[in-house]
Design goal:
The structure holds two protein chains of two kinds. Chain A is α/β, with parallel strands linked by helices. Chain A contains 18 helices and 23 strands.
């Protein structure tokens, strides 16, 4: 090849000493992190994390969403700086202050979401990563060479807009290989691939490994990890809880390490028996709306008055899609696919479903559950203008907003939920995450809904607010309402839910009484193993 | 050393008020430089442009006449822009509105009745609304870009009206000049006071401004417009349909532009001719932003823009500057308004050292 693509990146790094020089002793770690701690506000995203990877291994980084995997990887790749801790590259202490310094050391990364221009060709997209003086011809040749060498079929002259998701991922991989990295980080690479595309990817990874490169493989798919990885580091709640060889583990043992089966189960209250079905889903199906969405596959579920059904699962397995289908933000094909309070509502919009007695709390607070620039009283109106029309919209068809009534409700909700705020009626965006979430939950509870659907009720919320929110969900169910709670947080599901179902790749397992479920079973179901209940 | 924009935490309420005035000042300064480059005395030129028309009663009246269509159109555009729908084709809706309304006196020239005028106004609004419905339905149904479709339809409307007044609707006794027959008395929009050029349209503009202000600030419809404009996903969660709103705001702004068109035809020109398209539909975009997309602010902003038209005419006569100078002023004004609005949400910082450039 006529052009050294790794040179450019190396020059930029202070500590770069040449990326792909053969390593004499295979036992020495290529990269080692010691005592990495990263704090965001009150949250210890990484808590004294130790991690090491040796040359020529495919190393899995396992954990639930929010376990701290992404934070660790961002620190290794230089996009985040740790509060404390040290990183060693080939046994020399380094500080990685930016992704370009990471690339200079010989660390490459393929992100889950691609950064590609659809209107440009493959070669042009790759050339964008290098300086202006890089000839496009050299990029094309190098692309062709690497694509042959690693079994990643790709035409450098094809327009990115015409390529499949799998082909686009290959561009990102080749872009990364151009710099001849010694360590390649892959973030959930198979989440967007078909099984066949995934198999092709694994072949490529094996070749890279056999050349002595290390691969850090982030995933929550246990079967994949067992198949391709020879080492695994497992994280939970920001800490490394175990390091093991996944091939010597069972899917069940890995799952229990991921979700923490050693934590004692919480005492649950006895639920009052009630046969009244408030929410009935029958054969609910929904196609993908975009390449990153998940299709819902034949989901059926009953939620009774007085019970809290918890839906566990790792984010991105169809939970958001399920929420939107039940809320009516996406309507169904047939009316009887969603039945609320005995009424088929599959064809009705969210306002009509609310009017029947349902209430909804989405995962995203800002921009979905609330408008950040609008004051709290307007955010009351946002979700309740149809269900409480007689209170908030006066003068018949003119629908004049009753400002005082709204401010009264905002004040009441703030009081009941203990919402801390800087002013009487501030914009929603000025509240902290926990306080805004309490406000949004309170806005719905204030209606005394027959049915509450809530997605990730305490996501990114501090412990005090989370406890308050969970207690209010339990109280609502105790008063005779039905609650469907979608949550990635297994602790929360076991603490709050009376029965538990698990979502995986758009499928929903049948709900079982929480008392009969173990964390291990739930963890296996989360990882997509349908044999868990057998 | 380089300049960096840094996001403010809340948004500056000082700059929210100050921004239009700073923009006006910068426009006047830039205008002075422009006149100096043209070899004119900038102080005298600016005086001719911005002060002289205010001193003369006839010019003051003309400002109101010009402000009428600007305000009517800008109010509709403000509603569109607040909801995140970019209707750039008001000029076409204005023309088609004028043409629809004019159809009655042109085709039934002898018909004299108190019904004629209300019918013309309704026809004008219907015409504008129908013409705005085209980009609206294209956007709602097929996801086309409304900026392109609404803008392109302006040129269609201009050619169509031009063809009408030179062809089928031309006054046979008009010595071959393009233009319809003069309207009869019952088809002419009355003056606000006898002998004045200011017609009833000015009253429509004030009433529309107050009514739309009320809708935007006090009703659920206004709330829906604000929510969908700021956060479409939250709007969907609230049960508002973005598609239905797109159609609603286009129909509303089209109807107001059409009302402006027929008011101009029936109140000022008193016939349909080839000089109806004076760029009011585009200047109204500036009026809408200068008025902070607030109908009451737009009343004031409309007068400012009208002044640039009248001042431009005065400058043409006494300074020999091309009337294009008025367009330059309008362009500068929009540029500075949008630039100054940046200061509401960002502060300017000087950064001394460039950060290290990345490899990717």
């Amino acid at each position: 090849m006529g052009y050294d693509f790794s040179k450019k990146a190396r020059i930029l790094a202070k500590t770069g000493k040449g990326a792909a020089t053969p390593v004499p002793n295979v036992q020495q770690p290529l990269l080692e992190a010691r005592g990495i701690t990263k704090i965001f506000g009150d949250l210890r995203a990484n808590d004294t994390v130790d991690f090491s990877i040796v040359p020529g291994e495919i190393h899995a980084l396992l954990g639930e969403n929010g376990a701290g995997k992404s934070t660790l990887v961002k620190i290794l790749f230089g996009s985040l700086q740790p509060n404390s801790g040290e990183i060693f590259w080939r046994e020399k202490s380094v500080s990685i202050r930016s992704p370009s310094e990471a690339r200079g050391l010989g660390i490459g990364m393929v992100f889950q979401h691609f950064s590609l221009f659809e209107a440009l060709t493959v070669a042009e997209n790759i050339a964008l990563s290098f300086g202006r003086d890089t000839p496009l011809q050299a990029v094309s040749e190098q692309t062709r060479k690497l694509s042959r060498q690693y079994g990643l079929p790709l035409d450098p002259d094809a327009l990115v807009g015409d390529l499949s998701v799998g082909q686009r991922q290959r561009i990102e991989i080749i872009r990364c290989l151009m710099q001849d990295p010694a360590l390649i980080i892959l973030d959930e690479p198979t989440s967007v691939l078909t099984p066949q595309e995934a198999d092709t990817l694994f072949e490529t990874l094996f070749r890279l490994r056999d050349e002595g490169r290390s691969i850090l493989y982030i995933s929550h798919r246990l079967e994949e990890v067992q198949r391709i990885c020879s080492a695994a580091t497992i994280m939970r709640h920001g800490k490394v809880v175990d390091a093991c060889d996944p091939r010597e583990e069972t899917a069940a043992s890995l799952a229990s390490k991921m979700v923490g089966a050693e934590i004692a189960n919480i005492e649950r209250r006895q639920e009052p028996a009630n046969d009244e079905v408030v929410l009935q889903l029958s054969n609910l199906v929904m196609d993908k709306s975009n390449p990153f969405a998940v299709a819902l596959k034949d989901i059926s579920l009953s939620v009774h008055a007085g019970e809290i059904v918890g839906i566990a699962g790792i984010a991105g397995n169809g939970q958001s899609e399920l929420f939107e289908a039940i809320s009516g933000e996406t309507v169904q094909e047939r009316a009887d696919q969603v039945v609320i309070d005995g009424e088929p509502v599959g064809l009705l919009d969210i306002s009509k479903r609310r009017a029947i007695g349902a209430a909804f709390i989405p995962e995203e607070r800002l921009g979905h559950g609330a408008v950040p620039n609008m004051i709290l009283s307007d955010n009351i109106l946002l979700a309740r203008h149809a269900s409480d029309a007689e209170k908030f919209c006066k003068m018949g068809w003119m629908k004049i907003i009753a400002g005082k009534a709204l401010r009264d409700v905002a004040r009441r909700v703030s009081k009941v939920m203990d919402v801390r705020k800087s002013a009487e009626n501030p914009p929603a965006g000025s509240l902290s995450g926990g306080n805004l979430q309490k406000f949004i939950v309170g806005r719905e509870l204030d209606r005394q809904p027959d049915l509450l659907i809530v997605n990730q009720p305490t996501w990114g919320v501090d412990a005090g607010a989370a406890a308050h929110i969970r207690q209010s969900l339990i109280d609502l169910a105790a008063s005779g309402s039905a609650v469907l709670m979608i949550s990635q947080d297994l602790d929360e599901v076991f603490e709050v839910a009376s029965s538990i179902a698990v979502m995986s790749e758009g499928n929903l397992s049948s709900p079982q009484p929480a008392s009969s479920m173990t964390r291990e079973q739930v963890g296996l179901l989360m990882a997509g193993s349908q044999a868990a209940m057998a | 050393m380089r300049i960096e924009l840094q996001k403010r935490a809340g948004g500056s309420s000082v700059f929210a008020v100050l921004s239009p005035f700073v923009a006006l000042l910068l426009t006047v300064l830039a205008g002075g430089i422009m006149f100096a480059l043209l070899g004119k005395n900038p102080v005298f030129a600016l005086y001719t442009y911005f002060v002289e028309p205010l001193a003369d009663p006839w010019s003051r009246e003309q400002i109101l006449v010009k402000a009428t269509p600007l305000v009517l159109i800008a109010i509709g555009l403000a509603v569109c822009f607040r909801s995140g729908n970019w209707n750039i084709g008001a000029e076409g809706q204005y023309l088609i509105g004028g043409m629809f309304g004019a159809a009655i006196p042109v085709l039934f020239n002898e018909w004299q009745s108190p019904l004629v005028l209300p019918l013309m106004l309704l026809m004008g609004m219907a015409g504008g609304a129908l013409y705005a419905f085209i980009p609206a339905i294209l956007k709602a149904r097929f996801g086309t870009n409304e900026i392109l479709t609404s803008l392109m339809l302006v040129y269609v409307a201009q050619q169509f009206v031009d063809w009408l007044v030179r062809g089928p609707w031309r006054d046979p006794k008009g010595f071959g000049f393009p233009g319809s027959k003069q309207f009869n008395e019952s088809a002419v929009l009355p003056s606000l006071s006898s002998g004045s050029d200011v017609h009833l349209g000015a009253l429509f503009a004030v009433v529309a401004a107050i009514a739309i202000w009320f809708v935007l600030t006090r009703t659920l419809k206004g709330f829906e417009i604000a929510v969908l404009g700021q956060s479409p996903r939250a709007g969907r969660f609230a049960g508002f349909s973005a598609k239905r709103l797109t159609i609603f705001v286009f129909l509303l702004s089209g109807a107001l532009a059409g009302l402006a068109g027929i008011s101009e035809v029936s109140g000022s020109v008193e016939k349909l001719d080839d000089k109806l398209s004076l760029g009011y539909g585009f200047a109204a975009i500036i009026v809408a932003f200068l008025g902070r997309l607030n109908p009451l602010g737009i009343l004031a902003a409309g007068l400012v823009l009208a002044l640039t038209y009248i001042g431009g005419e005065a400058a043409q006569i006494s300074l020999g500057v091309s009337d294009r100078a008025a367009r330059v002023f309008q362009g500068l004004l929009l540029f500075f308004v949008l630039a100054c609005d940046t200061l509401i949400h960002y502060r300017i910082r000087l950064v001394s050292r460039l950060p290290k450039a990345g490899a990717a």
